[in-house]
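Methods — Computational structure assignment.
A single polypeptide chain was analysed. Its primary sequence is given first, followed by the predicted tertiary structure written as structure tokens.
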Amino acid sequence: MKPNFSLRLRIFNLNCWGIPYLSKHRGDRVKRLGDFLNMESFDLALLEEVWSEQDFQYLRQKLLPTYPAAHYFRSGVIGSGLCVFSKHPIQEFTQHVYTLNGYPYMIHHGDWFCGKAVGLLVLHLSGLVLNAYVTHLHAEYNRQKDIYLAHRVAQAWELAQFIHHTSKKADVVLLCGDLNLHPKDLGCRLLKEWTGLHDAYLETRDFKGSEEGCTMVPENCYVNQRELQPFPFGIRIDYVLYKAVSGFYISCKTLRTTTGRDPHSGTPLSDHEALMATLCVRHSPPQHTPSPTHGPAERSRLISVLKEAWAELDLGMAQARWWATFAGYVIGLGLLLLALLCALAAGGGVREVAIMLWTPSVGLLLGAGAVYLFHVQEAKGLSRARAELQHMLGRAREAHDLDPESQAALFLGQQEGDRSEEQ
């Protein structure tokens, strides 16, 4: 690889809102998306919420001349909704399905049936290894009373761990997707602090698009306006995140978003806004060598966010255990009720009544059993993530305590304290 090596990458990301039978104008929007991607000829297009595999196959055929490589990530009952289209050959791909993803009895939300996941592509570009990740985390349905917060934090941690463990041989790491997290939300801060990924919107000096980089805006006719009432400019929940390892330097030259309408026809491509980033990768000169990801200041922020995440998962685990215990009591009562009904039916006194109550009692017992098993599994998933966080928190604290700069700062602080006491 030449010392003056330079590579430009044009990236496209969009949550397509492609729910069969429910999403408005889905067919027309998918067709126009294909036309737009062919016209723009990005290096990589990463899409979420392509729930219909027929839509993927349509796009696959339409984009084949421009994007010869493509993959659809399959998981769950409905599917992950994730797919990618690439101008460059895909060397490897894999995926990780999140352990926790909502509740099966919240049918009207549907996240549990989707199999939310993170997909990974490995590309070799002029000798450079690029790991590209695409993901979609659990939706936030009520910001004031968010019953899925612990699940989303656990997903953010799993995502961060997956990136951490699969990107050791990569020169450049790229993550795109709908995180369903505001920039200052716990899950977003945890992901950034642990992986060291940079936010294209915050890093670029050339941004054009929606106000404050929002990816759900009131101007979009498909957006639920009531949900955006607390946010006059909209919300930013879709991201392009990236980093380069030592020896390389990556920057975001330009970042564009749509603004509630298609750039050409005027009608939106989705209820989300598209992100279009131009990234530049080059060899890192000495003056541009990135500073250590976990210096004293960074380590302090990491410790703080790990503690926050641990506390949130602890609350979620307590809630899951409460529901499991409640379901256990219902199972016990159900078994007693069935035993009583069996005794009544055998005695013949109120046999007809006992038989009538048998079916709902069995249904109650089976339902309580399913709830018990699910919440036991949920508690174990949260406990696993909490244990990982606790271990990493301990390691981060040890490193922070052993850091020479931290020790010097502590010593200076103690000296100042002694002086003030003497005075």
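Note: The two ends are 63 Å apart (CA to CA).
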